[in-house]
Amino acid sequence: MYMDRVGASVESEVSSELARARILITGLTGIAGVDVARAFADLKARLVVHTTDLSPELVELAALLSQSASEIRLHTLDISTADCAAKFAQTSAQAYGGLDVAINMATISSAEIQAIRGEGDLEALVSAKLAPLAQLTRVVANRMNLVLSEGMVLNVLKMPEPQDRRSAAVAGFARTALAAMIANEAREWAGKGIRINGVGPRAFYDGSRSGAYLTNEPDVATLALHLASRRGRSLSGHVFDAGGLDF
Transmembrane residues, as ranges (predicted)? Predict the structure, then answer.
């Protein structure tokens, strides 16, 4: 949805607008979120990057980002629980005197899907994935509000493309839960100039290609730039479909 409004020329159009913008990116790894981080770094944004991946690929990526970003701060704290995420958000939201954009990423892996044995397991898994995203959203949005700054939060929940009814059901449940969280937060901050959006899994496994949806990480990067810019200021409370962001 809305992808017809997001053109390939987004980056060139918002380059001056987002220069030195204060961007938080959480959930970055050596293979996940790379295009998102590079897109904002290439615009000379000031980055606060969170990762728990200390692989050689991530170290190389951090060095690359530092060459193009206006500034960068790297954090490696555990934010896998709601409490830890809230504490981290309080610290990161004060970076550079505040934040303009936050992009939070979480993953449901194939192994986690296979480990689900019943409805209780599914609910617990999705809750564990969304709770940190919700806390990051609330703390960052509250900080934006306190300093009278408009801003945008994009929460990305990714999982492999569904291959059967079971994995499609997991994707559908996860997307519904994400949409409910996004809608609640968007309503909470609507009157304060703070937009809350999401990217969630597309719950189809029949090979259907109908409808507009995100197919890879460059699509997510383009969407993030669009939503962070003036062009995206009318969009809040939306969850954009993603067709198996297994990156």
Answer: none
Residue 117: half-sphere exposure toward Cβ, Cα within 13 Å = 1
The pair of structure tokens assigned to 30 is 């050596």
Q: E strand or H helix at 46, and its extent?
A: strand 46-50
- The amino acid occupying position 52 is T
- The DSSP line for 73-124 is EEE-----SHHHHHHHHHHHTTGGGS-SEEEEEEE--HHHHHT--SHHHHHH
Q: How many CB atoms lie within 10 A of CB 212?
A: 13
Say which amino acid occupies 149.
S
Domains of the chain (ranges; CATH) run 3-242 (3.40.50.720)
Q: Which two tokens stand for residue 82?
A: 């709601």
Q: What is the pLDDT of residue 1?
A: 44
CA dist 136 and 1 (Å) reads 25
Q: What is residue 210's predicted lDDT score, i.e. its pLDDT? A: 56
pLDDT > 80? residue 12? no
**Which residue has better confidence, 160 or 130?**
130
Task: Say whether pTM exceeds 0.85.
Answer: yes
If 0-12 CB within 10 Å is exposed, 13-18 middle and 19+ buried, where does residue 4 land?
Answer: exposed
Residue 141, H or E segment: helix 119-146
Question: Which position has the token pair 């449901």?
Answer: 108
Residue 180: predicted pLDDT:
98
Helices (H) and strands (E) in the chain, counts: 8, 7
**From CA 152, how far away is CA 196, in angstroms rounded?**
6
